[in-house]
Structure formats: C-alpha cells, structure tokens
Amino acid sequence: MISPEKADSIGYNNARKERHFTGRCVKMTTIRGNESGTTLRNRLSKSIVQALRLLMQKQEPDAESRDLAAYIVLALEKITESVETTASAWEKRDYWMKADRFRQEWAWCEARSQALAAALQADDWASVARELALIGQALSGVEVSANNRLGKPWIGAWEKFSERAE
C-alpha cells in the first residue's frame, strides 16, 4: 500500500491535491460541470441564435463578425460533443433506437460546423452567410428573450478558433 504523501509525490491520485492558504490545509478536487446535456444544448442554441442576430445586422465583416462566426463554430462543436455523450449513455442502457434518432436529429450540427469552419478559414464570407442561413433555419424554433442573461460569450472566440485551426 502506498502512503498518500508518496502517492501525491509520484503523481498518483491527482484528484487529491493539497493547497495551503492562510495556514489551513484545503483539499482541491476536480470540478465537474453540473449542467446536463439538455441544459448545455439549450444554452448554446440560444447563444448561437443571439450571435446569428448580431451577425445579420452587420453590413461588412469586421473583428466582431469573426468572433461571432468562430463562436458559432465552437458552440456547434460543443453541441455535437454533448449529443454524442447523451447518445452513448442511452446506448449503455440499451436504448439503441432512441440514441440513433437523437443523433439523426442533431446530425446537422457537425456538418454545419465543419462547413462554417472551412468557410471561415478560407475567409469566404459568401459561404459563411449561406451556412449561417442554414444554421438559422435549423434553430428557427429557439426563442431568445430580449432580457436574457447570456452575455457575450463570443468575445475572443476567433483567437481560440485560430489556435485550434493551426
């Protein structure tokens, strides 16, 4: 049996980290998101719709347009991850048909995110506009109130998108 001190020193059990603040020992553990897949998809869908509305108001592409479009790509990728996580959980419980229908319902996300990412990388704003229109059609049932608390999650998205693309 390895002692806890020895285990921490060799990198075993990384969840048990101790940090000393003001003389007290505080144990740090991994924080997992407590947001369900449905909540995440709803929040991201609403923020995508909000970003689409702002993008449609733009006359010419600028730095904020790049941020907005890049955010939409990143958000669609997160939705795709969430869909796969949910569907795989259903498959573990032998809900094969439900998982397949769910994947088919959200299959447009991956295709649209890849097409939009390619158009952004090529700096082809005509293709970007076409993809945004298709995304808007897919999310036509999503309602975002004027008094929302979504903020501006797209700030800095272009940098993350550019780093990922390289």
Describe the structure.
- The longest helix is centred in the middle third of the chain and has 30 residues, at 63-92.
- By secondary structure, the protein is mainly α.
- The chain has a two-stranded antiparallel ribbon with strand order 1-2.
- It is globular, with a radius of gyration of 21 Å.
- It contains 7 helices and 2 strands; from the N terminus they run αββαααααα.
Short description:
The chain is mainly alpha-helical and 166 residues long.
Write the layout of secondary structure elements.
Layout: H1 4-9, E1 17-21, E2 24-28, H2 37-57, H3 63-92, H4 96-105, H5 107-121, H6 125-138, H7 157-165
Antiparallel strand pairs: 1-2
The amount of helix comes to 55-70%
SS strand fraction: 5-15%
Q: Can you tell me the number of structural domains? A: 2
What's the overall average pLDDT, rounded?
A: 83
User: Strand tally, please?
Assistant: 2
Biggest pleated sheet: 2 strands, antiparallel
- Radius of gyration over alpha carbons? 21 Å
Structural class, by secondary structure, is: mainly alpha
Q: Stretches where pLDDT falls below 50 for ≥5 residues?
A: 9-21
Element-level helix/strand string: HEEHHHHHH
Shape: globular
Q: Widest sheet: strand order? A: 1-2
Give the termini distance in whole angstroms.
45 Å
Query: What count of helical segments does DSSP give?
Result: 7
